[in-house]
Amino acid sequence: MQHASGRGLRQVGNTGWSSDTFHQPRDYRLINQLPFDAHVMQGSMMAASGYRGGASAASSFDSALYYGGGYGSGYGGFNGGGVFGHCAGVEALATSSSGQLFTASRDSTIRRWELGGGRPACAARFEGHVDWVNGLARVGDDVIVSCSSDRTVKIWRAGGAGECVHTFADVHSDYVTCVAAAEQAGLVASAGLRSEVVLYDLQAMRATPLRPPTGGGASGGDGGGAPRENGPSAAAAAAGSYFGAGGPGGAQQPYPHPQHHQQQHHQQQQQQQQQQQKGPKGSIYALAMNPAGTLLATGTTESFIRVYDPRTHAKAMKLKGHTDNVRALLMNDAGTLLLSASSDDTVRLWDMRQQRCIQTLALHTDSVWCLAASPDFGTVFSGGRDRRVFRTHLARRETQLLAQAEGPVRAMALSGDEARLWVSSCPTSVSARVCAYDVPAWPSQQPAGGGLHVQRSASLSRSFLGGSPALRLRQSSDLSGLAEEDSGADRGPAVTIPGAPALVAYRVLPDKRHVLTQDSGGAVARWDVLSGAIVESYGRADIVERERALWRPVSVPSWFTTDVKLGQLAVHLEAPGCFAAEAYAPTSRDSIQ
Are 303 and 326 in contact (CB under 8 A)? Predict the structure, then answer.
């Protein structure tokens, strides 16, 4: 969610609703951004929501309350261990060696799913972002890192109940689109619009810009402010082996010498001037880094792949070959091979030592958005806008149409045992679906003489082409023949996590306390914005007719604004307008609890 003020958001607390009441919301969060003189209303709203935690100091004038879309245990609520997933599209997937699946969604949440039983069970929800969660990276089995369009990067305890260990705010001036991790080095990188790249040291909890922002932000960012470094926190120090206490010897320095700030600011200004002299760079939508943290690849809208050395911040190479946006990147553990997927419908394999493309896969008929690969880089999976998921054996040059999704494929993740491929797709703009497809073993077709084997099928041989984009084949008839010959797509998914209904419409009632909402399934409900609860559910109904039936001749000034941008009901507060209304219990339709 993009706020016009451009200010960051801060989470104050969570409310744990009981699952035995049908009319309780599945998700309720209070995000506090009121000024210091608004503590009276802040306290009353937290009391109304049931929040009993401590309040943090506010530093801005925006506030937002989020009420989840989905109505109680009827939709398989979290407390009941239900199987219903997100109420918006899933943008990123990650699996762990312990049999867990992490999903990051446009509804601003991350979920952890236990896959050991017969069906996936939601074990934890990670709440704290206030806009689309665009990227997810796993650092071992203990830490996950997420990035969001709210311009923050968050560090989470992967095995916990949803605890955020640290938040890096103000390090990006625009949407953060992707994140990558180097497990051995304890290093994380994030990138986004305006070509920004930031490195994070998980031991010191410090952010360092690799590339400052360039050009104008596509999302209306707040300009060219240089990213600031975030010091370590007490929560970070207690989070585990990846999180240290901060500076040398564990000593923290909350107030560095002013001369240090002047030198740092001068260096950042010089970097920005150098970048501006070179001209604006394209936005970055893909990142890849080897576990040792010695190479970082970035995929841009300029169709280039830039590779940096995170240790020296120097650009190591530029890979040219794609003719459109680079949307996904994968690097092998040794840092010698790089896979890239692009909106030019191709997947390319690069030799990092030779700095050139050594193989081009032209299997798809539309943009390729995501990639997955086996640890040895022997088998590659690709998916995108054409809804098809292919797997390719790079050494044998064999390919198979593994699945046909219901909608464009947004993300993929291979299970630890390589037996299943998890795929997220968005059949419509308000639906989310995560499926697992069984990955059968490759048939034994290795030629006796060794070396590369090219299948005699015309459709397959034409799909593996040289480096020239002009030679690429785009004949859907050949790919259709491949699907009929060697495809397991007709078997369908082995496991499915369906999405929950998303809120798609709302009406604010005249009392300025109740809001009518309608979800993607047509169900209408009435919410109390003070308590964050559904007070009445009407089932499938016409929201306009229900609004007319509930109209009362009262006049209350507007003190909040609402939207359902994330599939949830968001109530935005801004001082001093949020204090402009008052209501009296005797004249209120429902008494204030």
Answer: yes
- Backbone torsion region of residue 247, taken as left when φ is above 0, otherwise alpha when ψ lies between -120 and 50, otherwise beta: beta
Task: In whole angstroms, give the CA distance from residue 356 to residue 359.
Answer: 9
Please state the pTM of the whole predicted model.
0.73
Burial 539-551 (b: 16+ CB within 10 A, else e): eebebeebbeebe
- Residue 491: strand, helix, or coil: helix
Token pair, residue 152, equals 């923050």
| CATH for 89-252+281-425+450-497 (3.40.50.300, 3.30.450.40, 1.10.1240.10, 2.130.10.10) | 2.130.10.10
Distance of CA 458 to the CA centre of its chain: 39
Which tokens sit at 379?
Answer: 């088998």
CB atoms within 10 A of CB 162: 18
Indicate whether 378 pLDDT > 80: yes
- CA–CA dist 437, 450 (Å, integer): 31
Cβ–Cβ under 8 Å, residues 454 and 397: yes
- Which pLDDT score is estimated for 496? 87
Q: What is the mean pLDDT of residues 120-141?
A: 91
Q: Where are the domains of the chain?
A: 11-74+500-587, 89-252+281-425+450-497
Q: Which residues does 442 contact at the CB level (< 8 Å), separation at least 6?
A: 379, 393, 396, 398
Tell me, letter by letter, the H, E, C secondary structure of 263-288.
HHHHHHHHHHHHHHHHCCCCCEEEEE
